[in-house]
Structures are given as structure tokens and as C-alpha cells.
Design brief:
This protein is α/β, with parallel strands linked by helices and 559 residues long. Helix content is 28%, strand content 19%. The protein has 15 helices and 24 strands. An 8-stranded parallel barrel has the order 3-4-5-6-7-8-9-10, surrounded by 4 helices. The structure holds 2-acetamido-2-deoxy-beta-D-glucopyranose (2 copies). Residues 99, 103, 105-106 line the site of one 2-acetamido-2-deoxy-beta-D-glucopyranose (NAG). Belongs to the glycosyl hydrolase 5 (cellulase A) family. Keywords: Glycosidase, Hydrolase, Membrane, Transmembrane, Transmembrane helix. InterPro entries: GH, Glyco_hydro_5, Ricin_B-like_lectins. One of its GO terms (biological process) is polysaccharide catabolic process.
Length: 559
């Protein structure tokens, strides 16, 4: 595969990038909780003190034929682990095949031998250079070394049983899809889960085990799902009561609807989490062939019906795979990501991005396959696409949850297509997009006025193509913001001459109002720049009651 076919002038060295990212990333992440078991409290994952820990993970692949975490032939393990943490991810979903835990002759193979048997001499040379201390470890020791390195950087780990037989996943007929398939013997699976749960008992940063990736295929059925997933959950819990037990749905983990009328029956509580996978291609090419407002509404409602309802029932929902082609050329993916981010922020979901991996040693018969969904580039030494990463960094921030209530609930005005929020420098400057941590608290009143908490200011329309402004006479239709379109992601108000306009941003990220675009039917245009999500948060806004007096002074100056 081409290694650097994209315009490399846009690829930053990691060090520069980290500075760049930190300008946008919220540094007040919840503690990574590297040292203690996690629990569930209703829909939230919490630490021992009951405080929310939002899982903001990245998937790291270690289940392909070599059974070695990808990238170790390109960068030192500790450097990769440090990068993960520096990019604001607090956790890794680390994949593994059952055979690693049940086939001793595989598990005891050295990393060198494993590559050798596949003819991957170049990877051995890379490992020798970057990870000489790993190359002669056994496969299971190498896996443990990865977990341990992540631990040393305070990165939590979810052990994800991805397949039984090492290799790329997933298809309906790969023999790894459902209980009873050629490579999916329930007893062997239980044995493997028990072994891994036992092996990592007492390893502090291993906070969860995801029992099986993407159940699927002709054999899938609800009765067996309950029968075996309950058995698996009990086996893991009795071997290692510290870990969260994470259960995948049917149909490639897109469907948990069968839990709406039947509950999982377990002997333990406070440890159960459900996982969901949601990609652009989960809905074929719907995003590119339909109107994005209508598709976003249809898809988001489906996701809520098939999985999101679990939150209302008091279960955590971990979107353990989502992601996009980071080249930015896949329109289906681009449109999907904006909608995904709006929903993920609104519901404040726990998640794991697919994927960290920039390239694979060997995937589907290809040596050195490029991974366009990867955060890192082919060489694992640069960020593939900083703007995609910046968007995603917006949801690393926990907006609410137990222990995070610093103030009364309010809104922030989130702009998914940039991952930024509406912010202001002062009361007189134009509003722009900036980091959500720098946002004021907004109230959306029953009169549909968007007002800055602790002030008399509200958001107002000036005219078509003009910056939105803050005013203090908030009774006219220029201050009344309707949430419109099927996606409910457009904020519309009227100019003084009665023209309906939508909140938008210009090329300098100044918040303006323009004619509303592609509200329905039209599939050729992308309304993404006009999508704003009002997100509930209890985190301290830039301006809260303690600074109210100051704001009144500022108001005096502004007047
Ligand atoms: C166990 O692993 C070895 C080494 O990869 C392989 O040759 C063997 O076929 C495996 N055994 C089973 C039962 O899968
Ligand atoms: C990064 O992704 C954006 C779309 O999100 C795209 O416009 C841009 O060209 C991509 N950059 C690179 C270097 O691939």
C-alpha cells in the first residue's frame, strides 16, 4: 500500500501535534482511575468514590495472525502508550483471540517465531530496533507487556475478546461469529475468558473485559445470547470480580433491542455494561444517498431504539467501535461523523474509537496494510489527521454524571463538524468557535431564548451573512431560536425583516447566520456547518454565579 500518498505537508510531527491538540483538548479530564476497580451506578461508570469515569478509549488491535499488538515494529511501546495518553484517551480496548488464552503452543511462541512463521522478516527487524525487550518474549508475555506499559502511563485497558482464531474480523461466515460456529465453541470460549480474567486479576489498569466482539451470522439468536453471555459473564466475574463485564449485541453489535423486554440474569450487580458498534457503513451508503438531516434523524432514532434505550433503563452503553476514513474523502463517513458526534455529546456516551493502528504487520493477506481509519499514520510517528482528532477530542470530556456536578445544569452550544463550541471573547466581540471548556453556560428558555447564564445577554440575529450577536432585549423573533429540521440540529431565528436564518460559521470560525441549507430532500449538499447541538452539562462554565458580579461590571462596560 502507498505509505504517504496524502499531502504530507498536513502531517505534523507528534511533538508539534501534541502542543496543537492540547490547545483544544480539555485538560481537566476526569481522573483515569488507573489504580482502582470501576463500578456502574445506573447508566454511569464510576470509580470507588462514586465519581464518574468516562471511558474515552481507542482500539488497539492485537488479534491478527501474529497475535502481537500492532505497531511495535514502528515505535517503542512506551512511546505509543505515552502518545495515547497525550492525545487525551484514558483507555485502550485491546483485542485478543481466544487461542492466545487456550492454546499453549501459540501463547508460548515467541514474538520472533510468530512473525517468522508468517514470513514477516521486516517486522522482526523493526521489533529488534524499536522493542528489543519484546522480541523474545512469548506472545502472552508480550500482551502483558503492552497492558503494563499502558498502566505505567495511567491508561486503562478493556480486554476485548475479538475472535477465537487469530485473524481479521468480521464476516457472517468466518466461523467466529456465534456460539456453535466452526471456531466458536462455547466451552473453549469460557475457558479462554476465565484464563484471561485470572491472568489479569490484580492488574490495576485492566478495568473491563468485553466478552466477545460483534456477535453475528446465521446461527445468531436471542436465546443462545442469554444462555452463553450469562455463562461468560459469571465465569469472568468469578475469576476476576474487579473488572466490568461488557456484553456485545447481535448483528455485529448493532442490536441490543432484545433487552427491552428481557433482562440479563446475573448473580452480581454493579459491573454490567453493554457495548454498541456504530459506523457510517452500518447503514450502507445511506449518508451519501440521502439528505443528511433526514438520515441523521432516521439513524439516530434507530440507534436509540436498538441500544440507546438501555441508558434510560439504567445501564451504561459503551460505543466500543466507531470511526471514519481519516483521509476525509469518504462523504458517507464525513456526514455520519457529524451526526455521531452530536448524539455522542448529547447522550454523553462512553466510547472507543476505531482505531489507533496506522498500519498492520499483516492483514487479510497484505503485508504492511495501511489503516485509513487509524489515528496514527503508516509509520506510527505522526497523526494521520489532526482535524478529525480534534473533533473527537470534544467528546473526551465528560459533560455530566455523578461527582461532576460543579454547578447547576446548563447548555453548551456544540458544533460537531469542528468539535468546538460557541464561545465569546467579550460581550462586544463577535462570537466564535472555541474549545468547549471555554464556553459560557447557556440556558435555553421555554421562550426559546438562548441566554448566557448569570447575565442578561441573549443570542440574536443581525442579518443574513452577518455575525450573530449578543443583545439584552430578548423578546423579538431575532432572539427566538427554533430547533428545526428532522435532525433537530439547526438553530433558526428571524431577521428583523422576517427572513428565517440558521446559525452557521464562516471560514474564520466566526458564528454567523445564513439562509438555512438543505433542510430536507436534497442529498447533494451537506448542512454540517449549520449543525449545533445543545448539550447538557454540569461542568463549571467560563462564567458562573461566582463571577456574576464581574459580568455585571463587564455588562456596564459593554453598554
Ligand atoms: C495452536 O497453535 C499452534 C501454533 O500456532 C497451531 O499450530 C495449532 O494448530 C493450534 N492448535 C489449535 C487446536 O488450534
Ligand atoms: C482530514 O479530514 C478532513 C475532513 O474531516 C479533510 O477535509 C482533510 O483533507 C483531511 N486531511 C488529511 C491530511 O487527510
Amino acid at each position: 500500500m502507498g505509505t504517504k500518498t496524502t499531502s504530507f505537508s498536513f502531517l505534523f510531527p507528534i511533538s508539534v501535534l501534541l502542543i496543537f491538540i492540547s490547545l483544544f483538548t480539555i485538560i481537566t479530564q476526569t481522573s483515569t482511575g488507573s489504580a482502582e476497580p470501576l463500578y456502574t451506578n445506573s447508566r454511569w461508570i464510576v470509580d470507588e468514590g462514586g465519581r464518574r469515569v468516562k471511558l474515552a478509549c481507542v482500539n488497539w488491535v492485537s488479534h491478527l495472525e501474529p497475535v502481537v499488538a500492532e505497531g511495535l515494529s514502528k515505535q517503542p511501546l512506551d512511546v505509543i502508550a505515552a502518545q495515547i495518553s497525550a492525545l487525551g484517551f484514558n483507555c485502550v480496548r485491546l483485542t485478543w483471540p481466544i487461542y492466545l488464552a487456550t492454546n499453549d503452543s501459540l501463547a508460548s511462541l515467541t514474538v520472533r517465531d510468530s512473525f517468522q512463521r508468517l514470513g514477516l522478516e521486516e517486522s522482526i527487524a523493526g521489533l529488534q530496533t524499536y522493542n528489543p525487550s519484546i522480541v523474545d518474549l512469548s506472545l502472552i508475555q508480550a500482551y502483558q507487556a503492552v497492558v503494563s506499559s499502558l498502566g505505567s502511563k495511567n491508561v486503562m485497558v478493556v480486554l476485548d475478546n475479538h475472535v477465537t482464531k487469530p485473524g481479521w474480523c468480521c464476516s457472517n461466515f468466518d466461523g467466529n461469529g456465534f456460539f456453535g460456529d466452526q471456531y466458536f465453541d462455547p466451552d473453549l470460549w469460557i475457558k479462554g475468558l476465565t484464563h484471561m480474567a485470572t491472568l489479569f486479576k490484580g492488574v490495576q489498569n485492566v478495568i473491563g473485559m468485553s466478552l466477545r466482539n460483534e456477535l453475528r451470522g446465521p446461527k445468531q439468536n436471542v436465546n443462545d445470547w442469554f444462555k452463553y453471555m450469562q455463562r461468560g459473564a459469571e465465569a469472568v466475574h468469578s475469576a476476576n470480580p474487579d473488572v466490568l463485564v461488557i456484553l456485545s449485541g447481535l448483528s455485529y453489535d448493532t442490536d441490543l433491542s432484545f433487552l427491552s423486554n428481557r433482562a440479563v440474569d446475573l448473580t452480581f450487580s454493579g459491573k454490567l455494561v453493554f457495548e454498541l458498534h456504530w459506523y457510517g457503513f452500518s447503514d450502507g451508503s445511506a449518508w451519501v444517498s440521502g439528505n443528511p438531516n433526514q438520515v441523521c434523524s432516521m439513524v439516530a432514532n434507530n440507534v436509540k431504539r436498538k441500544a440507546g434505550f438501555l441508558l434510560d433503563k439504567g445501564w451504561p452503553l459503551f460505543v466500543s467501535e466507531f470511526g471514519v476514513d481519516q483521509r476525509g474523502t469518504n462523504v458517507n463517513d464525513n456526514r455520519y461523523l457529524n451526526c455521531f458526534l452530536a448524539v455522542a455529546a448529547e447522550l454523553d456516551l462512553d466510547w472507543a474509537l476505531w482505531t489507533l493502528v496506522g498500519s498492520y504487520y499483516f492483514r487479510q493477506g497484505v503485508v504492511g496494510m495501511n489503516e485509513y481509519y487509524g489515528v496514527l499514520n503508516w509509520d506510527w510517528n505522526e497523526i494521520r489527521n489532526a482535524s478529525v482528532l480534534q473533533k473527537i477530542s470534544a467528546i473526551q470530556y465528560p459533560f455530566q454524571g455523578p461527582g461532576l456536578a460543579e454547578t447547576r445544569k446548563h447548555k453548551i452550544i456544540f458544533h460537531p463538524s469542528t468539535g468546538l463550541c460557541v464561545v465569546r471573547k467579550s460581550f462586544t466581540d463577535a462570537l466564535t468557535l472555541g474549545p468547549c471548556s471555554k464556553s459560557d453556560g447557556w440556558y435555553y428558555t421555554p421562550q426559546k431564548i438562548l441566554e448566557i447564564k448569570g447575565t442578561y445577554f441573549c443570542l440574536q440575529v443581525d442579518d443574513v451573512g452577518k455575525p450573530a450577536r449578543l443583545g439584552i432585549i430578548c423578546m423579538e423573533s431575532d432572539s427566538k431560536w427554533e430547533i428545526i429540521s428532522d435532525s433537530k440540529l439547526h438553530l433558526a431565528a428571524k431577521t428583523s425583516s422576517g427572513t428565517t436564518v440558521c446559525l452557521d460559521v464562516d471560514s474564520n470560525n466566526v458564528v454567523v447566520t445564513n439562509l438555512c441549507k438543505c433542510l430536507s430532500r436534497d442529498s447533494s449538499c451537506d448542512p454540517g456547518s449549520q449543525w449545533f447541538q445543545l448539550v447538557d452539562t454540569t461542568r463549571r462554565p467560563r462564567l458562573d454565579s461566582s463571577t456574576k458580579i464581574k459580568s455585571v461590571l463587564e455588562l456596564g462596560i459593554a453598554r
